[in-house]
Amino acid sequence: MTWDETIRYIRILPEHSVLVEKAYFDEDLHLNVRRFSESDEFKETLKIFKKYKPNASKVLDVGCGNGISAINFALKGYNVSAVEPDKSDTVGAGAIKLLKEELNLENIEIFEDFAENINFPNNFFDVVYVRQAMHHANNLDKFIKECVRVLKPSGLLLTIRDHVIYNEKDKEWFLSSHPLQKYYGGENAFTSIEYKNAFKKAGAKIIKELKYFDSIINYFPATTKEVLILKNSNELRQKKKLINKLGSIANNWLVWNLYCLLSSYKPLNETTIPGRIYSYIVIKK
Ligand SMILES: C[S@@+](CC[C@H](N)C(=O)[O-])C[C@H]1O[C@@H](n2cnc3c(N)ncnc32)[C@H](O)[C@@H]1O
Questions:
Q1: In angstroms, rounded to a whole number, what is the distance separating the alpha carbons of residues 79 and 73?
Q2: pTM, 2 dp
Q3: Mean of the per-residue pLDDT values for the chain?
């Protein structure tokens, strides 16, 4: 099945209804756009835009699917160029064209292209934003090189929600766990080193690598409250184990922190999440 066929197929399967909602795959394109605009992920993304590029005007959204982000950037007043190789009205450029028309937006242009092949001049955009698309790169170095090339000097490249694997075995585990891989077979992931090397080779500076638990941008649709509850309950369980071994001294702040330091114990463990998601804040030098 193609990606477009996969999404149309899972829409009718009750076991995928939560995924359809949380991944913004509803048939009602406007509903997806509204849900995304209200998400904590989008609010956090806008904060990053404001922090690193407060006066940004021109935004390039690469691999923008059905337009949830590109359309919302346009609704926020940015001048948006949207690049998406898939032509479909379901999850591709066709969907963004429909939204543009129905919302009467004049500040968004849509281009059917791969990131590796974008046709914009050098030093053109204030921000290049890539959501869940970089890990699909046909050629990661070329993909990022193009994103950096079209950015103005000191422009912001924000790549978000990309799958990270530690090695080939970890990749196999991720691919076999992915709920849609069995239908369309198009999933992929890279190591953190591969992403970081590609940014460096493209002449950009990595300001922050946001690991899975560092930002709601990654762990959404889980909430920050849910993550905090998980952290506390894991910590409590581990402390109980230590108390069983050492007695009540394990409750002492210093003893507990020393234990965490020496044993490298972390209450939030991303290794148990297949293809855990990372984001990168990158600036063109
Ligand atoms: C998981 S979807 C994410 C779509 C959208 N950014 C979102 O977050 O909803 C990945 C998107 O990347 C696009 N894509 C795949 N390979 C690409 C490439 N080499 N360059 C640009 N986009 C690509 C796909 O067509 C797809 O729309």
A1: 8
A2: 0.96
A3: 96
**Sign of dihedral through CA atoms 81, 27, 223, 167?**
negative
CA distance 262 to 255: 10
Q: Give start and end residues of each alpha helix (H) in the chain.
A: 3-10, 17-22, 29-37, 40-52, 68-75, 93-102, 140-149, 168-177, 181-184, 192-201, 216-219, 224-246, 253-263
Residue 23 Cα: closest atom of ligand 1: 9
How does pLDDT run across 209-261, given as a tens digit for each residue?
999 999 999 999 999 999 999 999 999 999 999 999 999 998 899 999 999 99
Which tens digit of pLDDT belongs to each residue from 162-217?
A: 999 999 999 999 999 999 999 999 999 999 999 999 999 999 999 999 999 999 99
Q: Which atom of ligand 1 is nearest to the CA of 138?
A: 19
Mutate to test the pocket of ligand 1, among 61, 83, 84 (most ligand atoms within 8 A of CB): 84
For ligand 1, whether the C-beta of 138 sits within 6 Å is yes
Q: Which sign, positive or negative, has the C-alpha torsion 172, 176, 180, 183? A: positive
**High-pLDDT (> 70) share of the chain, %:** 100
Class of domain 3-220+273-284: alpha beta
Residue 85: CB within 6 Å of ligand 1?
A: yes
131 ligand 1 Cβ < 6 A: yes
Give Cα separations from 108 to 4, 161, 180, 221, 226 (angstroms): 23, 23, 30, 27, 36
Per domain, the residue ranges of the chain are 3-220+273-284, 224-270
